[in-house]
């Protein structure tokens, strides 16, 4: 294992995000300003770091970061990463660099079939937005599994293991699962952790970013207010094909404009879609604006999904509420 330093790491896991109105200002999200972690951020010497591939494989591999750069074809993926057994084969990813809040290491797994399919675009990422990964985003190498819960895209990758069961890590087995409504607290949840599958594909979703709940908004001469947001497709079913907006609590819906990526939309299967609309709203208070998205496979965002104890994979209508329109 490579030498690790923690001198620049936060004592508590670093978790932060930018204001949502800043988030939708660009198709590509800046690498600084958002983080999701369960432990300290390791600072790894890439020249010493090795990724081991083992388990149900013909030959065990030990690959340096330099080999990952030079000996393998490089591949670019535009993807939105959202922060979730039978006898199917699985590929488990593990990071042993730092202890986590609930385990001595961090790991996650996905089905081997998904990992091996070329069109699934699962990669070992060395760069982000054209630059080397930063330590807080997994330097020197991390997994990126598009369409799948970000919890499976393990950072600071040490090991890849092919096996007949899911990762045994706490965050695969006892977190990021949609528990049934009967699980109402920690005690009642215990009976379900080993029977409920770990979250893999994320659902179709959209968010109203501008205006924010509680804002005061000036109506334009044509009686509309500007509304902006983003949407994400379900799992492998991208891209987002439609976003609709309502200002009368869902009685009527109007289609928003999808803001195309500067290059094209054909290569944005895994990416978010930015959208905007001019929405007619009567002056007054309180007012609200809702959004709902649909993807290429026809999945439509529901008004209110079933409640679960952890609140994970929530994808009810996007909403800006308690607006004052003047």
From TrEMBL:
Which InterPro entries does the annotation name? Answer: Ig_E-set, MoCF_OxRdtse_dimer, Mopterin_OxRdtase_euk, OxRdtase_Mopterin-bd_dom, OxRdtase_Mopterin-bd_sf
Cited Gene3D superfamilies: 2.60.40.650, Oxidoreductase, molybdopterin-binding domain (3.90.420.10)
Keyword terms of this UniProt record:
Metal-binding, Molybdenum, Oxidoreductase
Stated name of the protein: Sulfite oxidase
Query: What organism does the UniProt record list as the source?
Result: Cryomyces minteri
Which N-terminal stretch is annotated as signal sequence?
none
Show where the Moybdenum cofactor oxidoreductase dimerisation domain sits: 198-317
Q: Name one GO cellular component term.
A: mitochondrion
Metal-binding recorded as keyword:
yes
């Amino acid at each position: 294992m490579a030498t690790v330093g923690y001198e620049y790491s936060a004592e508590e896991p670093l978790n932060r995000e930018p204001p949502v109105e800043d988030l939708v200002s660009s198709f590509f999200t800046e690498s600084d300003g958002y983080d999701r972690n369960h432990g300290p951020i390791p600072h790894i010497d890439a020249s010493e770091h090795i990724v081991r591939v083992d388990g149900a494989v013909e030959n065990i591999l030990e690959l340096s970061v330099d080999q990952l750069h030079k000996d393998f074809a490089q591949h670019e993926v535009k993807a939105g990463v959202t922060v979730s057994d039978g006898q199917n084969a699985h590929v488990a990813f593990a990071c042993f660099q730092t202890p986590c809040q609930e385990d001595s290491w961090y790991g996650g797994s996905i089905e081997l079939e998904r990992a091996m399919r070329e069109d699934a675009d699962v990669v070992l990422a060395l760069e982000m937005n054209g630059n080397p990964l930063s330590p807080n985003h997994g330097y020197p190498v991390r997994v990126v599994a598009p369409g799948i819960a970000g919890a499976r895209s393990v950072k600071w990758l040490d090991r890849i293991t092919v096996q007949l069961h899911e990762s045994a890590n706490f965050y695969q087995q006892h977190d990021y699962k949609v528990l049934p409504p009967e699980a109402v607290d920690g005690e009642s949840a215990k009976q379900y952790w080993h029977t409920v599958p770990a979250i893999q594909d994320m659902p179709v979703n959209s968010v109203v970013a501008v205006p924010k709940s509680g804002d005061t908004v000036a109506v334009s001469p044509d009686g509309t207010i500007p509304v902006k947001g983003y949407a994400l497709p379900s799992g492998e079913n991208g891209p987002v094909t439609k976003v609709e907006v309502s200002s009368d609590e869902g009685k009527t819906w109007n289609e928003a404009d999808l803001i195309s990526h500067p290059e094209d939309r054909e290569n944005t299967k895994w990416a978010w879609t930015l959208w905007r609309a001019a929405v007619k709203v009567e002056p007054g208070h309180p007012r609200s604006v809702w959004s709902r998205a649909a993807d290429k496979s026809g999945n439509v965002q529901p008004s209110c999904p079933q409640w679960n104890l952890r609140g994970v994979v929530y994808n009810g209508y996007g909403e800006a509420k308690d607006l004052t329109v003047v």
